[in-house]
Amino acid sequence: MSSSTQRRTDGRGRTMGSTLSGLAVAVGCVLFLGGFVWAAVLYRPYTVPTDSMSPTIAVGARVLAEKADGSEIRRGDIVVFKDTTWGDLPMVKRVVGVGGDHIACCTKQGRLTINGKPVEEPYLHGHGPASPVGFKATVPTGQLFLLGDHRSDSLDSRVHLTDGDQGSVPRSAVQARVDARAWPLGSIGVMQRPPAFAALPGGISQPGPVQPIALTVVAGAALILGGAAYGPVARRRARKAGADG
């Protein structure tokens, strides 16, 4: 092949490569920015100020909570809620009972019971009973019974048993459902729905789209970096080819 033919072939190759790299960057920007917009529409960031949800959520951790209507909440969900009886700030607790449930603790094995059925709670802090203090409550219709995962260091429905409504809060108090830990880096992960609640009436809720959103953002970043890298790589190869020629 003559040198002029080689140059034309190389030129067409570089043009095609440049076009594809530009397309990759453009698509990457759409995915990257679209992922953040998607997240901003569905999720709210919260900082957990206390140790009451440890070890599931450590004090100071940042979480992503999907905006949710109270009617969508199921047992086992970790929710962000605000109730004037509990205070003026949003709080984060786990739902263990819904309207009509009879909640009690503890069995001889130290377990919480819902309607007489013991519940396995592997997310609890420590290896002691499900509550250091025994209690019983019947959840009124339209209400939620909430406990922290660190039962010996959580001000939750047990503290409010005498405040009315058996320590529960209305479903309308729920602002969002926690779907993932976002910070610190070592704790990032999607919240798993406790399987022990799946067999109860109503089952458990389905995870929000936090994983697809994360994949969209990562894919967009990869396309942007890959497309942007084409130019320098192509120029380096062209200089090397010229030197070899």
TrEMBL record:
EC number assigned by the record: 3.4.21.89
Cellular component annotations (GO), alphabetically ordered: plasma membrane
Transmembrane region(s): 20-43, 213-233
Keyword Membrane: yes
Active site (UniProt): S52, K93
Keywords: Hydrolase, Membrane, Protease, Transmembrane, Transmembrane helix
Membrane association type: Single-pass type II membrane protein
InterPro entries: LexA/Signal_pep-like_sf, Pept_S26A_signal_pept_1, Peptidase_S26
The Peptidase S26 domain, residue ranges: 27-183
Aminoacyl-tRNA synthetase found in the keyword field: no
Subcellular location: Cell membrane; Membrane
Enzyme class: hydrolase
Main location: membrane
Pfam family name, one: Peptidase_S26
Family: Belongs to the peptidase S26 family.
The name this protein goes by in its record: Signal peptidase I
Source organism of this protein record: Streptomyces natalensis ATCC 27448
